[in-house]
Amino acid sequence: MSTGLAAMGPGASGTGVSTATVPRSALGPGVSLHAYDIAVLVVYFVFVIGVGVWSSIRATRGTIGGYFLAGRSMSWWPIGASLMSSNVGSGLFIGLAGTGAAGGLAVGGFEWNATWLLLALGWIFVPVYIAAGVVTMPQYLKKRFGGQRIQVYMSVLSLILYIFTKISTDIFSGALFIQMALGWNLYLSTVILLVVTAVYTITGGLTAVIYTDTLQTVIMVGGALVLMFLGFQEVGWYPGLEQRYRQAIPNVTVPNTTCHLPKPDAFHMLRDPVSGDIPWPGLIFGLTVLATWCWCTDQVIVQRSLSAKSLSHAKGGSVLGGYLKILPMFFIVMPGMISRALYPDEVGCVDPDICQRICGARVGCSNIAYPKLVMALMPVGLRGLMIAVIMAALMSSLTSIFNSSSTLFAIDVWQRFRRQATEQELMVVGRVFVVFLVVISILWVPIIQISNSGQLFDYIQSVTSYLAPPITALFLLAIFCKRVTEPGAFWGLIFGLVVGLLRMILEFSYPAPACGEADPRPAVLKDFHYLYFALLLCGLTAIVIVTVSLCTTPIPEEKLARLTWWTRHCPPSELEKEVQESTAGTADMPSGEGPTGAGGTENPRHGQEQPAAPRRSWGQLLWGWLCGLSRAPEQALSPAEKAALEQKLTSIEEEPLWRSVCNVNAILLLAVNIFLWGYFA
Questions:
Q1: At what angle do helices 639-649 and 572-585 cross, to 10 degrees?
Q2: What is the pLDDT of residues 24-58, one digit of tens each?
Q3: pLDDT, tens digit, for every residue of 77-134?
Q4: Burial of 45 from C-beta contacts in 10 A (0-12 / 13-18 / 19+)
Q5: Cβ 593 vs Cβ 642: under 8 Å
Q6: For residues 507 and 10, is the Cβ–Cβ distance under 8 A?
Q7: What is the 3 state secondary structure string of 568-593?
Q8: Residue 578: which of 647, 639, 624 has the closest Cα?
């Protein structure tokens, strides 16, 4: 889920620390930043802004395809890096390390599960999306089923999820880390990060986002690996971690409870299906439902793969992203466990009064595991690097969400109300919507700050479990089952939403008890894990979709050209027919601009002499550059050129050599993944 909601573990106790009362002593007395640390931070910001400006200048920013899909010119390596950094936000560093400190290795399975779904994205989903010629996921559903209600439903739901879960989580976690490490004001930290992030998102589009994501992936992985080695060296490597973690018991405990004891199965991935905090059937099957939504249907992730210059590059990006997703177990989860082993009285505290003094949250302080390790172990200079790592995680995740949200709003929402909107209007609207997201994000910070301590990440994961499974079921059936119809899809989504909301209301009506308190929750809550619920909800939604579809008129075969797995290789002539019908039924895209959003530009007076462009002031020139508005005379494409461009942009043909290279690397990646699962199971 960044966007990775599906990458976070359940039961992340203490992950919603109230930052209003966090004392500086939480990270140890006398720990402060040296001038070298500040210098590293300054260099980092200058470098990131420089990369953003460079990529903005060289990017094609004046077309929908250029701004929203990087001109479909990206290579495999920046795509893979962007897939990683888009998912690994600051919330993952804080929350995943905290969950590792509290419960052990099992939460790392959320990262390793992503490998399988990234390959499914490159080999199954992306070929269909490219063949369909779509920019957004709701747009695909519009072309697949017709009508507007599913497209609007999906767009609005996605925007709500982005604003109130992904953006708020990353902002809160990143600002928490910066406040604790630097002593900055929470709101000052938030505003500075959001403004810098929004500037190169607005000016550069997806090209700037992907290149800065690539830079920040290198920073994240490099800095986190340094901290991992320092931590392992401190505890005596992996055997020492096993011994010291099992003995990581705080001096002050709550009488007649076991909350202070490390879990006996902390070093096992697969846990009891009934009593385990992360039951193994839920980790393998239920998590796959959530991860399919996150990696194969979520706009933030899929948009990166759709920017590839070819299907082989999209597959290569998935393979690289899969390898990178193996690493968080080692440089986030295990350092969280190391932090508890080294500082059990702080990271592992259970007494509410002591926890309140240490970190400002009565429910526990596992959330400070990663910041504590950074400030205590990293030497001068590298400490600043690790703060830059967290900033990189925050900014890369936010840029991804900002760009994808502006895409959804401009293409799927704005055009519903402005059916004659020009391409330039869509460019401006997309950028202005990023500003709106920044404002909403800043206003949302105080709401997060006063939220029930320790429940923020549990809340986010629960929301994912309630809303994502119906979407997963719909996309799987849309791609693999030609018999599914629009009424079946719509009423299946409504059914899934109602059932998910019922569970959510119960969940928030009966909050989980604190350590040592009786559990008054009904059995359907305390004995039915949310991963099991996700699996059940996905299955029930699929049954409703299929049942209603069988009772309605099937979609004609010719209407499914290049829109399902079985029809993705239909000839271009059928595609052109679909493009015309889709364009007429959606938003009257500008002339020369197909549904892929790339290609020619609007020219309603094709064939007439263009008047000379009037002189513009410096302010007008700056506004035009920010919004991607060009002074160059608009040039229309002939019907033959448009057809050739459309065929190229929707081609899923691959060179045999590179197809084989991708397949071999995918098999090697799966072999590594299976070995790791077996070793830590």
A1: 100
A2: 334 444 456 678 888 887 887 777 667 666 655 65
A3: 888 887 887 777 667 778 788 888 888 898 889 899 999 999 999 999 999 998 888 8
A4: middle
A5: no
A6: no
A7: CCCCHHHHHHHHHHHHHHCCCCCCCE
A8: 647
Return d(Cα 110, Cα 328) in angstroms, integer: 10
Report which residue type is found at 634.
E
- Structure token pair of residue 43: 């260099």
Question: Closest Cα to residue 58, out of 206, 213, 217?
Answer: 206
Task: Enter the pTM of the model.
Answer: 0.76
Q: pLDDT for 589-631, tens place per residue?
A: 443 343 334 444 344 444 444 455 556 556 555 545 444 444 4
Cα angle 179, 183, 186 (rounded to 5 degrees) comes to 40
Tell me what the mean pLDDT of segment 346-361 comes to. Answer: 77
With beta carbons less than 8 A apart as the criterion, state whether 547 and 488 touch.
Answer: yes
Kindly list the domain boundaries of the chain, sorted by start residue.
5-255+300-448+660-680
What gap in Å lies between CA 71 and CA 568, rounded to an integer? 22
Q: Which fold has domain 5-255+300-448+660-680?
A: Sodium/glucose cotransporter (1.20.1730)
**φ, ψ for residue 599 (rounded to 5)?**
130, -135
> Which residues have CB under 8 Å from 337's CB, separation 6+?
100, 101, 104, 105, 241, 245, 266
Q: How many Å apart are CA 193 and CA 162, to the nearest integer?
A: 17
Q: Which residue has the tokens 């301590």?
A: 453
- Reading the block at residue 215, the tokens are 């830079």
Q: How far apart are CA 496 and CA 567, in angstroms?
A: 28
Residue 500: φ, ψ to 5°: -65, -40
